[in-house]
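Re: the request from the purification team.
They wanted to know what the chain is likely to look like in 3D before they choose a buffer screen. I agreed to run a prediction and write the result into the notebook, where they can find it.
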Amino acid sequence: MEQFKLGEATMDPKISVIIPVYNTEPWLRKCLDSVINQTLKEIEIICIDDGSTDKSGMILDEYAAKDSRFHVIHKSNGGLVNTRKTGLSAAQAAFICFIDSDDWVDQNMLENMYKAAIKTDADITINRGFFLENKNYSYLLKSAIPAGTYRDNDLIEKVYRKMMRIENGSTGIIGSLCVKLFRRSLLERQINAVDDRIKISEDEVCTFLCIAHAKTVTIIDEAYYHYRKSHDTSMTYKIHEDYFINLNLVYHTLKNGFLSADNHELLLNELKHFINRAVYTSTKYLFGTYGHRCSYGYLFPFQAINKGCRLLLYGAGIVGISYYRQLITTYFCSKIIWVDRNWEAISAHGLPVENPEEITKDMFDVAVIAILEKNTAQSIRTYLLEKNIPDENIIWHNPVIESI
């Protein structure tokens, strides 16, 4: 059975697909097959072999020999940022899409994103969701900002103020470059400002710089991208002892880029929240993928709730913060509503804590009380019962402090 269809080179591709490749031999064919079988045929496929030591380079040459839309570049290892820049310098189309070589995409992704970009004259077209793929499950994640076309004041108020924050357990805008279609003229100006030495949050840096300088951003309420999270070459499985050196590069790159944008004061304020959260979740990089289990804190009662449920987390003290950190780094819940009676003072520090008076029982499936004192927890249970929350849906376990 033929593994892929032959394509014909086009002198005027609508999209340049850039695929950085480094030692992804076991998954590379599935990625390439998903691209060459796109319903949009007028594409060029630029694959950059970043010094692979397995057979990835040979696979790329094999595909290029059978499909003239391929352009393969072999180079010495320079890292992801440098590799993407190399691919962009070879691109011909007016629109650019990035795909990681261990992931795959649905066949209609490029056509639907291109149509949305043309219809709305968007500088960036964003898939609101993507699928997190593990060998045991496929999990849909969505960004917090709803679908729509944003420009002028809507771009400022509805995107800039939320794109770098977490809301209900979801980031405002998914940072990955791989769920977006960029107008090349915008991307070229911003990606060159990204330091090649950045190895963590490099996607977010380029994404937020592009959005800050875009005139029109379109978000479509679709998920076409499948992100593989189940193998040891994934960046998220590695320890980075130089994490804070990297974070310093991230901060200054974004700061300098935002200073040259309109509404830079707003953007710089949002940057503070982004950096604060990066510091807060740093243990997963300092101690590995499950770094949130390598520092002491109160262990969330995962066994008491179902994975993928909509969660109300009540309490934003030392227990609540510990619980929330575990939840956002494990993607255990599909939705998180975090509330506390002292929500105004807490949210002023950048934590996404809301007013408990505004919750209703149809907004979540289960409530977990994140309180140390039993008597206080009981008063919260009584409060939730008065709001007609069923008693069986209210959980409080005596918090246990462990290495988490």
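For the purification team: DSSP finds 13 helices and 18 strands in the chain.
Please add any questions underneath this entry.
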